[in-house]
Structure prediction request, 307 residues.
Amino acid sequence: MGAAQDKLVVALYGLGWAGVKKLPEPAAVALGRRIADFAWKRRGKSVLRLESNLARVVPDAGPERLRELSRAGMRSYMRYWMESFRLPTMATDRFGTDVEFKDEHILREALASGRGVVVALPHLANWDLAGAWAIGHVGVPFTTVAERLKPESLYDRFVAYRESLGMEVLPHSGGAAFGTLARRLRSGGLVCLVADRDLSASGVEVDFFGSTARMPAGPALLAQQTGAVLLPATLSYGETPKMYGRIHPEVEVPKTGTRAEKTTAMTQQVADAFAWGIAEHPEDWHMLQRLWLDDLEERTDAGERTQ
Prediction:
């Protein structure tokens, strides 16, 4: 990405943050749908990749059903952005009415135990809204990790936005994040990690919808090293403005096996919880990148850089 394109991307995101949050909610919803439908009709790489991913999640879906799902998926994805642009201006009392979590008591009891809690989520619905719910409704600040975006000024905007919601945001790169997360957990804190796509190429191979994918080892390693409670969580959208979630049962550290074997077993359990949530609401899974290893290898064989 060149300098001129960098500036354009930053300007467009800046326009979103400045402009969308000033729109009435119905107008923001309508704008998001128009943008989503325009992108869907263009049939670009992201839309085609989304359909390819959804074909694994819903293997019996024919071409027409996949197109319906990808259209709904793009609308869900743009809903995420419209909501995220508006989150800093949302009244905190809405987090208790617009967001409902099944088995919320599992999270509250884990936090009360003082062991520290790692919540692992996939790219379902609006994970930023879920974070705002944890802060505004449950009353617990938390630490998370963000992928470094290019250009750097765009990454800085994302960090500032999430910090404005009350999150502590650490950069994914640099190597210091794991130690900071471990310290937060040992002091009884909450760590939330989006964990359905490995960004380090050193993740754990798991069975995911019948094929091999690689997911981050971090949540399982943190639970082993600190004694924290590891809880998968999944999300889904209802009619605007409702979002629903589920806190899944604790993924416990196996009593036997090597560290690597324990990490693999725990990450597989997290992947299974993610698969449950994604299969329930495939249209809300915002995975517009390659995920499964055979897709990544196919791209590498073609001489392209994996993503």
